[in-house]
Design a protein that fits this description.
By secondary structure, this protein is of the alpha+beta class. It is 26% helix and 19% strand. It is built from 16 helices and 23 strands. Strands 15, 16, 17, 18, 19, 20 and 21 form a seven-stranded mixed sheet that branches. The protein has a five-stranded antiparallel sheet with strand order 1-8-9-11-10, covered by helices on one side. Strands 4, 5, 12, 13 and 14 form a five-stranded mixed sheet that branches. A hairpin with a 3-residue loop joins strand 12 and strand 13.
């Protein structure tokens, strides 16, 4: 039996950066200069303005339903769960004071901290934890993520499908107000990691009973959560304002207010940063060189656990043919995209599991058997010809192809898509039109592609790590029945579908393997097969280029503009250093 405990003083400051959907771990950081020391600013200036770029509203403020990075960033301000991650990407207790797993490998016991309360002062007990996890799976909620991240719970599939009315008393038990027992259907070394995702966060039943599942997030000013912050104002077309939660058990925030305005156009956020309207912003690639020279260490850059990729629906011709998919992959010069579009601020890759992640496979090769990321035009043309012949098709008989994207007001995304479109045209002779849509629409359309031969055929998305395990990048994305398997891997009529199914079984075997070395080797084998199959067409791994005002101090060294761990807020504050954002409108 393994037991971990923690007290407030020993909790490490953490950040697990998120997409889309998700939380992603970050690496080292660095600015051009070191910010000077300065005194603490007065209380009325303890305000940070941290934008949420690329959206006009949160997709969801409900932790049971949210899947994109911006929504989860707001949720992590307000809500919390049994466990979280430290700066080494290790699971540590959060609302739980300790946890243990029995010798059977499936019975997990969590002891809550004493005197926990919601943001309205109402006591928080094991019944609230049980209610929240069970609620996330109820079919009426129609959560696209809870059945994925909570699927290890015994009978979670039956709860999500409506075959049983509750998991409480089944795989979720509360022997006393301070104890929660969770039972999985099989041993899984990554179970605790999944509980760090927002679908396991705790919500207040009384607020939901009062305002309903669909409306309670409009009333979070009244309570409903137990994180370090509570909502002061939520304006759907403008942003969210947070103030400290007086009942939070952990380190109290030093900031008096955090404002998160929505920016539909991401590039506009950087312009507003330059004129002092906001405290931080991501830097457009064309501005990186200039941003490096900003005074007092405003610029920061580091690798992030994000992969950007294209998806092809295995149920839609011609992408049901492996050679066609490989042709589309090998037609792209990823090095050229990284250099010309992103000014070398990203890393071209063939990988599904990013560098820096447990399970990263250094010896992985692309679909042509090489480690090159420059593409292989001759091989691509050969594969396309062979694949179309196998399908009884030709270039002339190809149906109209549309690439669905959400560039979110970013010029670099638009440039990337244009370059990809041009490469497919020049190398393969294939014309692809572009449909640039709202990001939330793209997410919904992507989900609708599952088991749908009339759904999206070709689209662009990205994925950031939810938790530090390769299962999050492999089985979660491509296993049979997974709600993230919208490309329909292993659930199609392709000639090599039996090989796809065998690969799914290999991933499942790795999921439950207690021998970590052997487990990682199994994941390596599975990832190589997925790359050969072009389950995703990865383009690059993200590097985060961000600026923030020198007056905003105490941020984690690898802060990337996404979610900040709840324990970090105890030492983040505003000083008298300059320049600083103008927060007079929020005082």
């Amino acid at each position: 039996m393994k037991i971990k405990t923690s007290t407030g003083n020993k909790l490490l400051p953490t950040i697990f950066c998120l997409f889309t959907i998700l939380l992603a771990a970050c690496g080292s950081s660095g600015g051009a200069q070191t910010a000077p020391k300065a005194e603490m600013a007065p209380d009325n200036q303890q305000i940070a303005i941290l934008p949420l770029p690329g959206i006009s509203d949160l997709d969801s403020f409900d932790p049971a339903k949210a899947s994109d990075a911006n929504s989860i960033t707001a949720i992590m301000m307000n809500f919390t769960g049994l466990v979280t991650l430290n700066d080494q990407n290790e699971v540590i207790p959060d609302l739980a004071q300790s946890y243990s797993v029995a010798h059977d490998g499936v019975t997990w016991t969590f002891k809550l901290r004493p005197n926990l309360k919601f943001s309205d002062g109402t006591p928080l007990t094991s019944a609230d934890v049980a209610y929240s996890i069970d609620r996330a799976l109820k079919p009426e909620l129609k959560s696209s993520v809870a059945p994925i991240y909570l699927n290890l719970l015994k009978d979670a599939d039956k709860r999500a499908s409506g075959k049983i009315s509750t998991l409480i008393g089944d795989s979720i038990k509360t022997p006393d107000p301070q104890t929660v027992v969770l039972i999985t259907f099989q041993p899984a070394v990554y179970f605790l990691d999944t509980l760090t995702y927002n679908t396991a966060f705790v919500v207040e039943k009384s607020l939901i009973d009062k305002y309903t599942d669909s409306k309670f997030t409009d009333h979070l000013t009244e309570g409903g959560s137990a994180g370090p912050w509570k909502v002061e104002k939520y304006e759907h077309d403008h942003g969210v304002t947070f103030v400290p939660n007086p009942y939070y058990y952990g380190p109290k925030p030093q900031l008096k207010k955090v404002v998160m305005p929505f920016y539909k156009d991401s590039d506009t956020a950087y312009k507003d940063y330059q004129v002092g309207r906001i405290s931080s912003a991501k830097v457009p690639p064309e501005q990186v060189q200039r941003a490096r020279s900003l005074p007092n260490g405003q610029y920061h850059n580091f690798d992030r656990l994000f992969i950007y990729f294209y998806k092809m629906n295995y149920l839609v011709k011609p992408f049901d043919n492996i050679k066609v998919r490989q042709a589309f992959a090998l037609a792209l010069d990823k090095d050229r995209i990284a250099h010309n579009v992103y000014k070398d601020a990203v890393t071209p890759t063939n990988h599904l599991v990013p560098k820096g992640m447990p399970g990263y496979y250094a010896n992985l090769t692309g679909p042509d058997g090489t480690t090159s990321t420059k593409g292989n035009p001759e091989k691509a043309r050969q594969l396309l010809k062979e694949g179309l012949q196998e399908e009884g098709m030709s270039l002339a008989s190809l149906p109209p192809l549309t690439l669905s994207v959400a560039t979110r007001g970013r010029a670099d995304y638009r440039d990337e898509v244009a370059v990809v479109q041009q490469m497919w045209q020049s190398v393969l002779g294939v014309k692809v039109s572009i449909d640039d849509v709202d990001f939330n629409k793209l997410l919904n359309d992507s989900l609708a592609a599952m088991n749908n031969p009339k759904g999206l055929a070709l689209w662009r998305l990205d994925w950031g790590a939810d938790y530090p395990d390769p299962q999050d990048w492999l089985t979660l994305q491509f296993d049979k029945g997974s709600l993230d398997n919208d490309i329909n891997y292993g659930q199609n009529n392709a000639a090599n579908v039996a090989q796809q199914v065998a690969n799914q079984q290999l991933m499942e075997k790795a999921d439950g393997n207690a021998n970590n070395e052997e487990r990682m080797q199994q994941y390596h084998q599975a990832e190589q097969q997925l790359v050969n199959d072009v389950a995703w067409l990865p383009i690059y791994q993200e590097q985060s280029s961000i600026v923030y005002k020198p007056c905003l101090v105490g941020l984690p060294a690898n802060y990337g503009g996404s979610s900040i761990d709840p324990f970090d807020w105890g030492h983040i504050h505003i000083t008298t250093a300059t320049p600083c954002a103008n927060t007079s409108n929020y005082q």
